[in-house]
Write a structure and sequence with these properties.
The protein is α+β, with helices and mostly antiparallel strands. The protein contains 15 helices and 30 strands. The strands form 8 sheets. It has a 6-stranded parallel beta sheet. A 6-stranded antiparallel beta sheet has the order 23-24-25-30-27-28. A 5-stranded antiparallel beta sheet has the order 1-9-6-5-3, with helices on one face. Helix 9 packs parallel to helix 11 (377-388). The protein is globular. Mean pLDDT is 94; it is low at 1-22.
């Protein structure tokens, strides 16, 4: 064993692994736990069977320039700012700052590959039909939604048709009773200026022609007895592609390409594939060593064939040209407050091309059961403001349906602000594709050792802009500016190294440009 500043420590189950928070702060492992970071206290979390509805990487990073890495999944917990793990991990002292730790880890384990998803993701808003239509995806209402986007003055961008457009899982034809002319629908959406993606998953409905064909080819996961496995996932019981089999993966890509050619589909929203989907039963795969997280990775690799892609769950796919989305959020202020820290952790784990879920939340049940007396329009507005200066911005619930004219005007302005920042965002997206540097950055990442370790309500967009949205019901907030000279969204100059209390009426998104 090499004994130097780069040491490898062998640990017993839950032995104390990382130093306490009084010495340094730690981030990593799970994007969905970003709001819990830097870690203080956290119950045991198993990376192989729990996903927190999001992306996972076997990496911890510290404010003092250290990183920890394990090739495989493990169980970890946090107590008093220290981390306890169940596996041996490599511990590397890469420098003295969080940025140095990250840059060293990503260069070694998930380097940027020089490619990007399609640039439209970064430069224009995205729209998803899920909240408005849920499982009633149909041609008439999709076209109505798309026309309403344009009619209400929002920029066209990527439009995603969500779950239940297809005849059944494993089949990629539109339901004839709901889509009388799917190719004509696609042509109309394209004429409006949209690129169109459709929702898909790796699962296959049992007792279907596709199931029988795939089973005969040996392209489905098997159970412990060697028969075709039926997995219990969040939308029922289904067979599942064995994408550790290269022939099965190539076949799946070919089926998707045929659907693209037939209908004019631009890309796919790759949903499901969470590691816990594969934990519902013992499995046998083409790759006998594959674990739950390896199946998640095999699913993610399918998206590399399509510049228009989106994922919500991944394992060790940092640096790849895959669009990520934060896990479905409730319609709640707690969920709004989670967006900034989770987005920052996504960047720290190599997922620079990430979208902060959907404006107002993507958890459909939350919208379904909100009474009129409990609906707070300001939450939608503030959520849109968080999204506006993120790498991506995605709508689902229709702002024109639920907001007053005044609040709709604010949200429309946020969509246009995102588009106006498109060239700036693209500059850092391209930088991320070359260097691995995050687009959205923790304050501690950009300004180390200035006391920003616990800051979760402001962030840096690239090197130049500090963004400080309001994430609660108040109409004011404190903003702590790092050293230097700053100019805010209203043209006022500030001297850095100080904390300011500013007024933030509902129509304002405070952001500060570093000018010196």
């Amino acid at each position: 064993m090499k004994k130097s500043i780069v040491g490898i420590f062998v640990l017993s189950l839950y032995s104390l692994f990382l130093t306490p928070s009084s010495a340094q702060s730690w981030w990593g492992a799970s994007v969905g736990l970003g709001h819990e970071q830097p870690y203080t206290d956290l119950p045991a979390f198993d990376l192989n069977t729990q996903d927190a509805n999001n992306q996972l990487v076997p990496l911890f990073l510290s404010s003092e320039g250290e990183y920890m890495w394990s090739d495989g999944a493990f169980v970890f917990s946090a107590k008093d700012g220290g981390i306890e793990t169940s596996v041996p991990m490599e511990r590397v002292k890469a420098g003295t700052t969080l940025r140095e730790a990250y840059m060293a880890a990503q260069a070694k384990y998930f380097p940027a590959n020089g490619q990007l998803p399609d640039t439209l993701f970064f430069t224009m808003p995205q729209y998803n039909t899920w909240i408005e239509l849920m499982y009633n995806q149909n041609q008439e209402d999709i076209l109505r939604y798309a026309h309403a986007i344009i009619d209400n003055g929002f920029p066209a961008g990527v439009l995603m048709i969500d779950d239940n457009w297809q005849r059944y899982y494993g089949n990629f034809d539109f339901k004839a009773e709901r889509f009388p002319d799917p190719k004509g629908m696609m042509d109309e959406l394209h004429a409006l200026g949209f690129k169109v993606m459709v929702w898909i998953c790796p699962f296959v409905s049992s007792d279907s022609p596709e199931f029988r064909d795939l089973e005969s080819k040996g392209y489905l996961l098997r159970n412990a007895n060697g028969g075709t496995a039926v997995l219990n996932w969040w939308n029922g019981y289904s067979a599942c592609y064995d994408l550790t089999n290269p022939e099965a993966a190539d076949y799946f890509v070919s089926v998707l390409r045929k659907a693209q050619e037939r209908y004019g589909i631009d890309g796919f929203k790759f949903d499901a594939g969470d590691n816990n989907c594969y934990a519902s039963a013992p499995l046998k795969a083409y790759d006998p060593s594959a674990t739950n997280v390896d199946h998640t990775t095999s699913w993610a690799k399918i998206g590399l064939s399509f510049p228009f892609n989106e994922y919500r769950a991944c394992w060790k796919m940092g640096g790849q040209p895959l669009v990520q989305r934060l896990g479905d959020k409730d319609y709640s202020w707690d969920a709004v407050r989670q967006l900034i820290p989770q987005m920052c952790v996504a960047g720290l784990l190599g997922y620079a091309y990430t979208c902060p879920d959907m404006v107002g939340g993507g958890q459909w049940a939350a919208f379904l059961y909100i009474g009129e007396d409990a609906f707070d329009q300001s939450l939608i507005v503030r959520s849109a403001q968080v999204h506006a200066l993120m790498p991506m911005m995605q709508f689902s619930v229709a702002p024109w349906r639920i907001l007053s004219p005044e609040n709709l005007a604010v949200v429309r302005r946020m969509a246009k602000l995102h588009a106006a920042f498109g060239p700036y965002i693209m500059r850092y997206a391209r930088q991320a594709s070359q260097t691995g540097e995050p687009i959205v950055r923790l304050m501690e990442y950009q300004f180390p050792h200035q006391g920003f370790e616990a800051c979760k309500d402001q962030f840096m967009l690239g090197d130049k802009y500090l963004v400080a949205p309001v994430v609660d019901t108040r109409l004011e907030r404190e903003v702590r500016l790092p050293k230097g000279t700053w100019r805010d969204d209203q043209g006022k100059r500030y001297r850095g190294g100080k904390t300011y209390r500013i007024d933030v009426p509902l129509e304002r998104l405070p952001y500060f440009e570093k000018i010196k």
